What we know:
Layout: H1 2-5, H2 7-26, H3 28-80, H4 88-111
Helix pairs in contact: 2-3
Amino acid sequence: KEVASLSLVSSACDVVCAAYASTKERHPCLRSVCDAAEKGVQSVTEATASCVQPVLATLEPHVAAVSEYASKGLDKVGEKLPVLPKPVGQILSDTKELLSSRVAEVKEAVSS
């Protein structure tokens, strides 16, 4: 949940979902294949969920410990990578701005 809530991750997922939906709309043949795949995944997920539930209940304390450890690790990664809380659009915009600034500096250095 914590990883999914990061702006970078959630905005990247939004971009992928929009591209997927757009592709399904533009290509009817792919739409039917995607719809069939979605139904298959949904059926497998539902069947697996009922079988796995007892195992998950047994592993709950271990999962909680691992989750806490992973959360601390994610916090440390977030400190070292300040780009994580930014959405994809802002990262792209910042990167374009930085590149154009560097190109301008190089042009000026070459011309002088």
